[in-house]
Amino acid sequence: MHGEAVRPTKLTWEAQPRVHFRYYPEVWRSSRVSAWASLGVLRERRWEKLPDPKDTFASVGVRQRHGALSPKELRGEGGVYPMINVLAEDRVFLNYGPVQMQLMARAHGLAMTKQLQEAAEYVIRILSDLAEVQKQAKDVLTLDELDLSAYPLPLRLMVEAVLEVGDRTLTPMAAVAGTFADLAGDWLVEKGATKVMINNGGDIALRLLGNEKTKLGLTSSIEASGYSHILNITAGDEIGGVATSGLGGRSFTKGIASAVTVVAKTARVADACATLIANHCLVEDPGILRLPAEQLDPNTDIPGHLVTVRVGDLSPQTKAMALENGLQKAIELKSLGRIHGAVLFLDDLVVMIPDDLCQAVKFEGGNQDGNS
Fold it and tell me: How far apart are CA 210 and CA 150, in angstroms?
């Protein structure tokens, strides 16, 4: 129930702040499930225009085309723009159906451009595998199946992640974006990468080996002028995933948090846990409008569940109570070893576990959005 946008910072590709978009009743955004349901008809896409290499997170329009892309088209020959675009020697962008993924990797400081392109092609292949079992991916009953061996690897990992979280309000789709980020990251490690960051629409898989380290800049909402907190991660932290949920993005939430960012051992577990914690940032208040998910998206995987579509003016006490409810779920998940930590934002309020998970950033002059 997430899949948020990400903006670049002056910390280069080591820092990927998170930005969220709020839902409003007059603008129904397509949900994550609808995006993945489009696989049935959007088998192949190509760029309408290439992204600006200087703006690695620029939104790029795509248009549907019929038929499959040939290897020649994938290489961009004959004047046909590829869906796999090299942004820099260590950075490739993939736009394919529901996936908008940035892949970044180095091997002991050396670029891996060719391997990054191959990793993007690998994602396309396994995405097609998942398309064959969309019905099972949306069905909570799939979690009860004892033998998953007949299913493709992405769905097996999605099911395992949701089972590990242990909440029956989630379907396998709660871990879909994180799963594909993990698979791309693991593929690159097998090819020799020592530092990997796979950003799948805001759900990030990290693979840091040896003495590698990175930084992530976090923002609390789309209204923020720049990132407000920094998350420092080293290989020794054994953090493999960072995911964010909350109001906005491509999927629904039951809570009112502006953003809930979770760090865990894998992106798929972080993905599912961020969804669950954000759902628990829930209070009853006349200023909060909720509607059944199926009224907003007939393809939803959670029919009958009320999801938040509008948040009006709330008292400080109401906001604090919502964050406290989410924090209690985060504490529970951390005590069970499911997550390393979480930070929860609601407007100008922020809580986190552990208390030193990330650090607030104070800017003195310059450009806070990191573009200076």
Answer: 36
Distance CA 357, CA 232 (A): 8
Query: In a 10 Å sphere around its CB, with 0-12 CB exposed, 13-18 middle and 19+ buried, how is residue 112 labelled?
Result: buried
- C-alpha–C-alpha distance, residues 177 and 266, integer Å: 12
- Give the Cα separation of 205 and 179 in Å (integer): 9
At 106, the amino acid letter reads R
State the CB neighbour count (10 A cutoff) for residue 77: 11
Tell me whether the omega of the peptide bond preceding residue 354 falls within 30 degrees of 0, making it cis.
yes
**What's the topology of domain 5-360?**
T-fold (3.10.520)
Interatomic CA distance for residues 195 and 116, integer angstroms: 12
Residue 75 · residue 103 · CB < 8 Å: no
Q: Does an H or E element contain 96, and which?
A: strand 91-96
Between 364 and 167, where is the model more confident?
A: 167
Exposure string over 19-40, b if 16+ CB within 10 A, otherwise e:
bbbbbeeeeebebbbbbbbbbe
Say which residues have a Cβ less than 8 Å from residue 40's Cβ, sequence separation at least 6: 131, 134
- The type of residue at 109 is G
> Could you give the CA distance from residue 218 to residue 15 in angstroms, rounded to a whole number?
9
Host H or E run for residue 177: helix 176-190
Q: Per-residue pLDDT for 47 more than 80?
A: no
* Predicted pLDDT at 23: 31
Beta-carbon count within 10 A of 322 CB: 24
Question: CA 154 to CA 160: how far, in whole Å?
Answer: 10
Mean pLDDT, residues 232-254 taken together: 90
| The pair of three-digit structure tokens given for residue 293, joined into one six-digit string | 């998910």
The tens digit of pLDDT for each residue in 266-284 reads 999 999 999 999 999 999 9
Name the band, by pLDDT with cuts 50, 70 and 90, for residue 41.
Answer: very low
Give residue 130's pLDDT.
93
Q: Is the four-CA dihedral 39, 42, 43, 48 of positive or negative sign?
A: negative
Which pTM value belongs to this model? 0.80
- Residue type for position 115: Q
Domain boundaries, the chain: 5-360
Neighbour count for residue 321 (Cβ, 10 Å): 17
CA-based nearest residue to 73, from 98, 47, 52: 47
